[in-house]
Design a protein that fits this description.
The chain is mainly alpha-helical and 90 residues long. 77% of the residues lie in helices and 0% in strands. The chain contains 4 helices and no strands. The radius of gyration is 20 Å and the shape is rod-shaped. The termini are far apart.
Length: 90
């Protein structure tokens, strides 16, 4: 999040000083984007900022959403194995 916020501060700070004029302001955008909440109250306007924002959003999906699905699938498989073992022991 800090890396993403710092990059957006460098890319968008001069174009949007109210939204990205400091690293903590840009960090708000980064937190909302990486947690896939994406309020939309602050968005990049430059082409480079938009490109980096897309990469940040994909990173958020890759680091949060995909592992969650993998863990849920593994949990479901483990439950099914436990239920199968219990049925066989009866």
């Amino acid at each position: 999040m800090l890396f993403s916020g710092t990059c957006l501060y460098l890319l968008e700070g001069s174009s949007q000083p109210d939204n990205f004029g400091s690293i903590p302001r840009a960090l708000w955008w980064s937190i909302a984007t990486l947690t896939t909440v994406g309020y939309g109250d602050v968005t990049p306007i430059t082409a480079t900022g938009k490109f980096f924002a897309g990469l940040t959003a994909l990173t958020g999906i890759g680091m949060i959403a995909i592992p969650t699905g993998i863990l849920a699938s593994a949990f479901s498989d483990a439950i099914q194995r436990c239920n199968s073992s219990a049925d066989e022991s009866k």
